[in-house]
Structure formats: structure tokens, C-alpha cells
Amino acid sequence: MVISRKQEPPKCDIFINDAKLKQQDKFKYLGTIITSDGRNNNEIAARIAHAKTSFQKMRAVLTNKHISIQTRKRVLQCYIEPILLYGCEAWTISKQMEAKLEATEMWFLRRMLRISWTERKSNETVLIEANSRRSLIKTIRKRQATFLGHVMRREKLEHLITTGKLDGKRGRGKQREKMMDGLKRWLGSGSSTETMTAMGHRELWRNMIADASKHGTG
What we know:
Blueprint: E1 15-16, E2 19-20, E3 26-29, E4 32-35, H1 41-57, H2 59-62, H3 69-84, H4 95-112, H5 123-129, H6 136-154, H7 157-163, H8 179-187, H9 192-199, H10 202-215
Antiparallel strand pairs: 1-2, 3-4
Helix pairs in contact: 1-3, 1-4, 6-8, 6-10
């Protein structure tokens, strides 16, 4: 595989014992979909689909009105969220995929409350009925911040990959969203350098994450 921002990735011929290896534009590694465009859109979409399928399998419990909504939300958190958020520590979330994740969060609540789309209830009304708040994006950001802080303090290969720079010119047009961009917004921090420095101080970083978890927007 060749990772490239171009719509048509460059061709790369690799031979082993005179046998040419097939170049792939997508494959699954350790349960995560890797694509040649370097984006996470396919992986996030697949996670959403898996989570919805698992929800349907547990529908008898999750939509049972004889069980309190608080208990059902705990069941959702224990059995469905781990499927949805598998590998989320490495996601770079675009605005489009963030909207899809938030829509999935509401999809769960609407079905748990048995609210039909014909009732035309707003998301705010659904959240009030479920005695809940939007928390999915905040959970993802918290996991990313915790994981990235751990990686940076180790100062090993992962640190080099995360902080390293490639030779070449900056691409034209609007730059892609990076994981650090989303974290900086959530943490309310300044430059990437300041954020990286904070990661090196465990207690400071923990306090920043705790503060963002209380007041961050996602």
C-alpha cells in the first residue's frame, strides 16, 4: 500500500522471489480498516455499522421499558460503546464523521425510548426524556488525549512517528484536519508546541483532560 493524498495513489512494484505483490488500497489490520488515503472515514463508518448491528441483537433488553433507562444506558455503555469506539484513540475525525457519530448517539437513544421518526421530536427533547447529555465525542477526545499523553512520555517509536516531519512542500488548498487540531479545540489549548509540552508533565496533562471533560464541547 502507498499512502497518498492523491485520488490515484502512485504505483509501487514490489517483488519477493520474482513474485509481484498486489498493491492494495484498503485492508484490515487488527480489526481496523487501513486505507491508502490515510483517512479514517471507512473505519468509522464500519464501526457505526457494527455497533448498530450489535444494538439490534440486544434490542430485547435495550428497548425494554420494564427496565429503567439508566440501567439500559449502562448496558449500552458496557456492550455497545466498546464496539463503536474500538481503536478511536487513533482516529482523525472530520466534521462530517463527527456529525455521523453524534447522529449514531441519538439513534441509540431514540430506539431505546421507542421514539418513531414520525413523532418529529428534536434531539434536545430526546436527551431530556433520556435524562442524558451528548457525551460520545467527549469520550473519544478523552481517550485520545490519555493515549497520546502516554505515547509522548514514552519517547519511543510512536513519539517519533507522531512528531516527525516529512520532507517536501505543503500541499495546496485547505489542509486536512489532524488529530492534534481536534484535541487542541477540546482542551482549549494554544499551539501544538504548547500542547506537546503539556503532555510531558503527567499531572498537568491529567488536569487539562479533567478540566476539558467537565467543560469541553467535543
